[in-house]
Amino acid sequence: MFELANVARPGVSEYISGSGALSALDNRLEGFKTPLIVTGEKSYAAFTKFYKGNREFRVAKYDDQHLMKICNVLQMNLEKVLM
Fold first, then answer.
1. Chain-centre distance of CA 3, in angstroms?
2. Residues paired with residue 39 on neighbouring β-strands, in sequence order
3. Which residues contact 77 (CB under 8 A, 6 or more apart)?
4. Fewer beta carbons under 10 A from the terminal one: N or C of the chain?
């Protein structure tokens, strides 16, 4: 199980590390209507291999060439939340 000490919140996002963190994802996202995963190709492949939950996610995959586009998508989503 994860501990609160392993939770980092850089801005509006959240990063949880530790054994069992992925199994708690659905419960952590209960209050969110449309979660957005920002990830690289390899990280997303690992996520889909091990995620056993029922949620569907919007996914924004990035590489160095597309990082600015991802930042713009995040900014638009943040603006929607704050409006």
1. 18
2. 61
3. 36
4. C
